[in-house]
Amino acid sequence: MEVSFLGVGEACDERYPNTSVLVRGEDKTVLLDCGFSVPCRFFSHVRDADSLDAVWISHFHGDHFFGIPQLLLRLFETGRKKPLYFIGQSGIEDLVLRAMDFAYPSFYKKFGYECRFVALEPGQTLNELGLCWQGAVNKHSQPDLALCLTMDHKRLYFSGDGCPTPQAKEMAQGCDLMIHEGFLLEGRIHGHGSVQGCLDFAREAAVKKLAIVHLQRDERRREEADLQRRLENVSFCQASLPVPDDVIVV
Ligand SMILES: [Zn+2]
Ligand SMILES: [Zn+2]
């Protein structure tokens, strides 16, 4: 499993695109979240746009799904024929189609490819596209599903936004890679995690690798160099603060 960071930023970071991750396995490619600033990053990474099989949406804040109209538009322009799956919490079909209709009214019906929407209920295990998808609710200002995706016998945990619940903590146990938002260095802010919280969670869940994303822009600018050094010295897992274009092989 090869994991490429298209973006690592929060909603309004002028330096880093919204957090979005491209996951490529032996024969499947999945995009995790697609905020406003992600589609251009996606098309700079992916030459064969037909290779994309599915888009996961953790929740419906703009920095996690408002890039979808542009993504779909360009897939239409490239002549895509292959169906594209959207997987996320219930309501995903309605919200994606409404976003598309706001951005480009009446385009959707012209598409030469089908969008297939699959809702994942918290606690459910779904087998779709030969991959295993599990979701658990996170504590966030809007309902957010943390994902555990199993691909090529490797398990990837992706938080979306928010702090882990007991169900999310159980789901994360022993994952090969955890990608988790840490909005602040430490302390608490409503509906978000912290870097220290990510480290505590990764240790508790005994994950092998941890990538921290979605750090608040001012904290990141001020603390980035120190934080990278601090994460290099973490002993219980391989921890990092990725930048765009970084790749982690699991
Ligand atoms: Zn966000
Ligand atoms: Zn959010």
In short:
By secondary structure, the protein is an alpha/beta fold.
Defining traits:
Metallo-beta-lactamase, Chain A, 8-stranded mixed β-sheet, 7 helices, 15 strands
Could you describe the 3D structure shown?
This protein has 250 residues and is of the alpha/beta class. The chain has a single domain (2-249), classed as Metallo-beta-lactamase, Chain A, CATH 3.60.15. The chain has helices at 39-45, 62-65, 68-77, 92-103, 166-172, 195-205, 217-232; strands spanning 2-7, 20-24, 29-32, 54-57, 84-88, 115-119, 125-128, 131-139, 144-151, 154-158, 163-164, 177-181, 209-213, 238-240, 247-249. The strands form 2 sheets. Strands 7, 8, 9, 10, 11, 12, 13 and 14 form an 8-stranded mixed sheet that branches. A 7-stranded mixed sheet has the order 6-5-4-3-2-1-15, covered by helices on one side. β13, α7 (217-232) and β14 (238-240) form a beta-alpha-beta unit. α3 (68-77) packs across α4. The longest helix is centred in the last third of the chain and has 16 residues, at 217-232. 46% of the residues are buried. Residues 59, 61, 140, 142, 161 line the site of one zinc ion (ZN). One zinc ion is lined by residues 10-11, 61, 63-64, 161, 214.
